[in-house]
Amino acid sequence: MAALALFNWGNVHMSRARKKIEFKDDASREAMLEGINVAFEWTKKEYLEAGERYAEALRIKPDFYEGLLALGQQQFERARLTWYYALSCKVDLSNWSYAEVIELYNSAEGNVDKGMDMWEAAQSQRITHLTDRTKIKPVLQGTILDDLFKDTSAEDAAVRIKDLRSQMNLLRGTILYERSMMEYRLGIPVWQECLEVALEKFQLAGASATDIGVMMKNHISNDSSMDGMFYELVGYELLDVKSNGLSDVLLNFFSVWVFRIGVQD
């Protein structure tokens, strides 16, 4: 119960970190940039608070796969926030220290993979249990124990497991996709390998060939002119289906939210 309480506490901070910032229609560029700076520090603080709560939960319950997955997403969102904030500040990337962001990405990938492995093992045991239970249900039919066997069937559980597995693979793909864009911009050679693995994860998540094509087209390596026009920074909005060209199937699974703030030169 203590681990779950800490997990929920962390979720509250994550929700606060994702709060969308609003600007007045007539706000000046200077006012927008100042607002972004303030929001960045506030959002970073909320992410750190969330991470501490998830870490505490995992110290109490090391096999808490939900905590590992949440911690992995928190680390990914911190890395992503830091990167786009650096772009918005127009830092000199040739002298920018990106070691912390790389470490966040490494930790995010490791925690998500570990959490998913734990989850897969737990679901395998659950399906076995439900299958065995189905075999003995006819024997208990009409007895007082029959009520114990009226919840989830093995078939229903399998459908839910498939959906959750898709969401996890989409998260894994999104982490790698975002990382590959940063690595491309920084001139790190492994960006293409990251992108290839990301697309594999999207396929495992149920993305169609059209979805994959759109993701390839939108990658910074194909259109660097988009970089610098929009900065994904502090607020979050669901991806626009029409403007991004992604199918409803992929969007239904998309667990990472995107927000964009136009800052013109």
Describe this entry's structure for a reader:
There is one protein chain. With 265 residues, the chain is mainly alpha-helical. It has one domain (2-262). The chain has helices spanning 2-17, 29-60, 65-88, 99-140, 154-186, 191-204, 209-218, 241-244, 248-253, and strands at residues 230-231, 261-262. It has a two-stranded antiparallel sheet. The termini are far apart. The model is unreliable at 139-149 and 224-265 (pLDDT under 50).
What are the defining features of this structure?
265 residues; mainly alpha; 2 strands; globular; disordered C terminus; PHOX1-4
Strand content: under 5%
Major β-sheet strand ordering = 1-2
CA radius of gyration is 21 Å
Q: Structural class of the helices, strands and pairings?
A: mainly alpha
**Tally of individual domains:** 1
Mean pLDDT: 78
From the N-terminal CA to the C-terminal CA, the straight-line distance is 51 Å
The succession of helices and strands, N to C, reads HHHHHHHEHHE
The number of helices is 9
Number of strands: 2
Report the principal-axis shape.
globular
User: What oligomeric state is this?
Assistant: single chain
